[in-house]
Amino acid sequence: MLSKRIIPCLDVKDGRTVKGVNFVDLRDAGDPVELAWNYSRQGADELVFLDITATVERRKTMVELVKSVARQINIPFTIGGGINEIADAEALLNAGADKISINSAAVRNPALIDELAKAFGVQFVVIAVDTRAICDKNVVHLNGGRLPTERETLEWILEAESRGAGEILLTSMDHDGTKAGFDNKLLKIVNDAVHIPVIASGGAGSVQHFVDVFEKTNIDAALAASVFHYGEILIPDLKAVLRSNNIEVRI
Questions:
Q1: Radius of gyration of the chain (CA)
Q2: Helices and strands: H and E segment counts in the chain
Q3: What is the pLDDT of residues 229-249, one digit of tens each?
Q4: d(CA 107, CA 141)
Q5: Are 245 and 215 in contact (CB under 8 A)?
Q6: CA quadruple 36, 113, 118, 57: dihedral positive or negative?
Q7: pLDDT digits (tens, 9 = 90+) for 124-145
Q8: Contact 125, 113 (CB under 8 A)
């Protein structure tokens, strides 16, 4: 059995880590390089950095941040935000990122997934999906959750997989920042439908929420931000509880 992964997520705006509720009301959560180093020492399996305003502000993801992080940690990390073409991804890979995450650019130009997978391999390509329930249907949102589309979430995820996505990072906007638990119903539907790893995002507020998401959905990884950033959950403690519940994790 493959070990389940615990992944802190650092939303970066203007060089600082921030966190909000339902994608708004952002507040400062610290220096991303310092946080990355701390999580690496705590036993995080991977990290995700999302430049949350890169797409909106039409600027490229911070290559210098990637270089700084790569010098400090020895665990895999993914970077996303403002990646629109092969050259963007290549710059990040050369700077030290292990994977890239694309969201808005992939929905607007699905062939980008094919191009990235062909150029770098499927293991390099993470498709981030921000979803919100509208009229009993889960709908994909773009531009940091600001723009609803006409794409139904599962349909889009299946297309992304067919084009070469190596992993799905699925964020429930309805649960994001609420600390009320992951969207286990949607996560199970998606995980049962695809053949690639799924990362759960949005809603972690307690250790039990991690136990629940792994037991109820069998997803591959769980991602969280504020509970880690503000020390509400420590990764060694979380992993100890998961192991006590017979959930395989790396210690």
A1: 16
A2: 10, 12
A3: 889 999 999 999 999 999 999
A4: 9
A5: yes
A6: negative
A7: 999 999 999 998 899 999 876 7
A8: yes
CA 109, CA 111: separation in Å to the nearest integer? 5
Q: Which residue bears the tokens 């992944």?
A: 7
Which residue reads 């995080």 in tokens? 44
Rounded Cα gap, residues 19 and 71, in angstroms: 24
Q: Where are the beta strands (DSSP E) in 99-242?
A: 99-102, 125-134, 137-142, 147-152, 167-172, 198-201, 221-224
**pTM for the full model?**
0.92
Give catalytic residue positions.
11, 130
- Let me know: does 6 contact 204? Beta carbons within 8 Å: no
Residue with token string 């010098």? 71
Query: What mean pLDDT is predicted for residues 184-197?
Result: 98
Quickly tell me which residue has 């993914």 as its tokens.
Answer: 78
The residue whose two tokens read 């390089």 is 33
Whether the CB-CB separation of 30 and 244 falls below 8 Å is answered with no
Whether residue 11 has pLDDT greater than 90 = no
With left for phi above 0 and alpha for psi between -120 and 50, is residue 14 left, alpha or beta?
left
